[in-house]
Amino acid sequence: MENILAKIVAQKQLEIKGLYDQYDFAKLEKEALNMVENTPVAAPLFYQALASSRAARTPFFIAEFKRKSPSEGWINREADLSAQVLAYAQAGAGAISVLTDTPFFGGSYADLAAAAKTLQQQENHPLLLQKDFVLDPIQIYLAKKHGADLILLIAAILEPAQLERLRLQAEAIGLGVLVEVHDANELESIQHLDFPVLGVNNRDLKTFRTALNRANVLAQQAGGRFLVAESGLRDYRDFQVVRSADGFLIGTTLMQNWSNSPTSTFAEHFQASGRRLFKACGIRTAELLENTDADYLGINFSPVSKRRPDAETLAALKNMPVFPAHLVAVFYQNTEAEIRAILADYPFKIIQLYAQDVTPELVRSLRQKVMLACAVHTLADLERLEEFAADVDLFILDGAMPGSGQSIRLPIPADFPYPFLLAGGLHFENLTNVMAHPACIGIDVASGIETDGQVDALKIQSMAGRLIQLSN
After folding, report:
1. d(Cα 75, Cα 7) in Å, to the nearest integer?
2. E-state strands within 173-231
3. First-last CA distance in the chain
4. Which residues does residue 420 pair with via DSSP β-bridges, in sequence order?
5. CA–CA distance, 297 with 471 (Å, rounded to integer)
6. Strand duo 68-69 + 73-74: pairing
7. Tens digits of residue pLDDT in 231-288
8. 214 closest CA partner among 396, 439, 388, 381
């Protein structure tokens, strides 16, 4: 795949040369230091805000303004910056991120200054993050000049010593720093540095593919730092997967939808009811394709399943004017060719694979969100999931014979480190015990929502209600 990050960095180096031609560096530095002397702060406001949120056990939302991205193209070309920033502030953002990169993200320093001016008119306004590919101190001084309270430093494009110098320069003028990594090697290379906030970008900056569980993998090595989960968060379902983080940076979904959703706060929208998630699997009739009682609806394409959709349902899938985002294409014992052919025919945004059938390389090659299921025979099956952990969005732990209605016979270790849905032999009466596992964030049910071999909409509704009872 094309290395998008390398293209961005090459362009940014040219841009920095232009900044030195445009600005007097010494003057920028002096202005920034004078601003700090006039308004001294014991510690950057960003660190103080995260500490307060952690103490109160409330999530810290960073809402992003970006017109486009290399992965999405134009997201909202005509967005009204002031209106969007105000909507974010009213919805409870702790900070607002503004892109200042022009070629790839459609932003500018003018956007940053406009956001700062808008926010300064609000009481108790959110902090302002300058989001860019920072390689040089001149970018830090420009961030301060245009109203930023914090900046982003990306480990993938900086040597550790260079990152540390830039961090100290930023903090010296009162800016907080969000240090971003997107894999274990990057984190290991900077682990010795004394930075307080770790951002885990669930998006691979080389391929721009996202994997939500990456934040949970790297959280294990955060070393007590504040953890911010970045990228790939679209709704309350995704939030459940990374809910143990201190902060959440959300961009694309807000630029697409938030101006149309001004009545709710971020906490209400992304945390929802707080109940555990519910995947109703084996949906195979057209009238159930838009069911909203379940959080996910599984459409089974396995060649060995008795729950494959009929021709009418497949035709309905083809002709849906808006393809529901919570539909999941379920594959078990399918070949790679079969998987790719089905994904070419239907615009699923989420797929379910079985670890026994695929390789990490195949998972990394897919653009959809990936639920990775495991047919649990022995502890070795669970241990093997580690090689997939940073490249999937959510795990499903299933019985040894998927689709049979048999539950997992092996006790799931109490220290299983990642959020998962539990599958296999679940029904209305036996949910209490299985939901006791600390990492279990929901259930995946097929036979337990059927009556006489057919999916029963009333049972889906009852199961959803039962989960709400158990979560309260």
Report:
1. 20
2. 176-181, 197-201, 226-230
3. 46
4. 395, 440
5. 21
6. antiparallel
7. 999 999 999 999 999 999 999 889 987 765 556 889 888 876 567 899 999 999 999 9
8. 388
CA dist 252 and 49 (Å) reads 24
Quick count: other Cβ atoms within 10 Å of Cβ 111?
22
Q: Which two tokens stand for residue 148?
A: 């930023």
Buried (b) or exposed (e) across 369-397, using 16+ Cβ within 10 A?
Answer: bbbbbbbbeeeebbeebeebbbbbbbbbb
Helix (H, G, I), strand (E, B) or coil at 340: helix
Which residues does 294 contact at the CB level (< 8 Å), separation at least 6?
Answer: 278, 279, 280, 326, 460, 463, 464
**Residue 11 identity:** Q
Q: Are 143 and 98 in contact (CB under 8 A)?
A: no
Q: Are 236 and 40 in contact (CB under 8 A)?
A: no
Tokens read off for 22: 């445009």
201 DSSP β-pair partners: 230
Structure confidence at residue 2 (pLDDT): 58
Using pLDDT thresholds of 50, 70 and 90, give the confidence band for residue 1: very low
**Full DSSP string of 425-446:** S--GGGHHHHTTSTTEEEEEES
Q: How far apart are CA 235 and CA 253, in angstroms?
A: 8
Structure tokens at 232: 């790939």
Distance, in Å, from the CA atom of 361 to the CA atom of 373, rounded to the nearest integer, reads 16
d(CA 229, CA 233): 9
How far is residue 394's CA from residue 230's CA, in Å, rounded to a whole number? 16
Residue 412 C-alpha from the chain's centroid: 26
